Each structure stands twice: as C-alpha cells, then as structure tokens.
Amino acid sequence: MNYIELYIPTPNSAQSEIYMAQLSDFPFESFEQEEFFVKAYIKENLLDECKKEVDEFLYTTGVQWKFTPIETVNWNSQWESNFQPVEIEDLCVIRAPFHEASSNGAMDIVIMPKMSFGTGHHATTFLMTKSILGHDFSALKGLDMGSGTGVLSIIAAKLGATSIDAVDIDEWAAENCKENIVMNSVEEVIVPILGDVSAIDGSTYDFILANINRNILLNDMDKYVTTLKSGGFIIMSGILEHDIESICNCAEKLGLKRAKTHLKDGWAALEFNK
Asked: What is 117-273's CATH number, 3.30.460.80, 3.20.20.300, 3.40.605.10, 3.40.50.150?
C-alpha cells in the first residue's frame, strides 16, 4: 500500500501540536513533529476519500502545505527509535518494554509504542495522567472513552479501580490496548471494547476518562453523563485552552460541576463532578 506524506511548515512547536491534533480527525496513521514543521502520513486510498476535506481545512488555516508520495514505511520501527520514557512529576513513568524500569519508585507503566494515541508524550495524555494521579480509584468502576493504548485505564487500574471499560473505535487501538494491559498485569481489570459511544448504553460508571477531541466531547457528553453515577467524576481532555468555555457550558447544562483545570502547552484537561 502506497503512502502519502503531508508536509506543513509551522512557526513553533506549539502550533505543530495544534495541527497534529486537528489532523487527527482524519485517517492519518502517524505524525512526525519538529519545531518548524509537521509531517503526517496516510494511505493513498484513504487520502483519496478525504483529500477535499483536508484541503478545505488547511485552506482555512492560511498555511502552505504539500503532499508527496513516499515508499512504504515501517511505522513501528520509527516509533520505537523515537520513543523516550515520560516522567510525570516523579509519580509515574511511562516507558516502552525496551526501556529499563525506573529506579525512583514511581509507578511503572509499560506501553508498546505502536500507532495508538497515548504514550504520555502529547500534552493531553500528560495532563490526563497528572489529573488521574490526584484521585483515589479504590474499588471504582470506570470508563476510558477513546482509550488508544489503554495507558489511562492502566494507571487507574494500578490506583485501585476494579473494573474499566476501555472503548475505542479503531481496531488497531483495541488490539494495542489488549497487548498493553497484559504487559502491565491488569487484564483482569480492563476490558478493551471496539466501538463508539453506543457501546456504553446501559452501563453505569463511578468515573469516566475521555481524552478525545472537542467535537466528540460536545456531541457525546450527554451519554457520558447518563452513564455516570451521582457523585461520580469525569476527566476530559483533547481540547485546546480556547475550547474550555464551550466544554464547560455544555457540561454545566448537563448537571456537571467543574472541579479543576489543568493546562500545558496550550492544551487543557478539565475535571467535573456529578
């Protein structure tokens, strides 16, 4: 299968992160980010199906861009060569299985860096992890919506959660999640589920983790609230700072009360109580 590289010059690393997040709404399989550019890779046939929408989006940003055909790439090899452990405030280390475990006593999370979102490197995963580490999950049942690698579920499980549904719409993410929960010995706690928000119909949860994007959060938040028990909490990210107001307005209309806000590199994570 042939791949296409999308090249976008950027003024700084913060803008590079923003373009990566916005492009994640399209079926790009991998991203390469530097301070002054972003490269995004997509299968040629998938680009054919969405190129008009991608071009329209890029046109609205005023940025210059270029599509270039490339040879087939071994993405896993690239991710492994670039993947470095992530440390969250001396409390948690997210690393790959080919890295040595931390010796500082921090929670050790092992994530195989494939194409699933959630290795701790992106600001939103960092913010979600920081927020999760501030909660007591003992004996709680939860939902990880848009679970990606399963990293957030794994952390919550290690903090005492007894049951977590890890839901993702992408098949490769669900498979990567299965692999990661076994490596972290939490397969009896976390249940990977391939599907969208309809997969949670009829369920009830003590907590919900949702690191997705603004549009999905706004569209599906009412279903999250329906499944969340009274007294439960929800942590959301995948949103930029300028999206905080719209997310909070929607949450408050649904009966949620904002508890905390975490910010990093222009991104936000929000905590709400029901």
From this structure: 3.40.50.150
Dist CA 220 CA 207 (whole Å) = 15
pTM: 0.73
3-class secondary-structure state, position 222: helix
| 175-193 pLDDT tens trace | 889 999 999 999 999 999 9
φ, ψ for residue 120, nearest 5 deg: 95, -15
Cα(220)–Cα(242) distance, integer angstroms? 20
The Cα 178–Cα 160 span in angstroms is 19
List the beta strands (DSSP E) in 2-101.
3-9, 30-34, 37-43, 66-70, 86-88, 92-95
Sign of CA dihedral 18, 152, 244, 268: negative
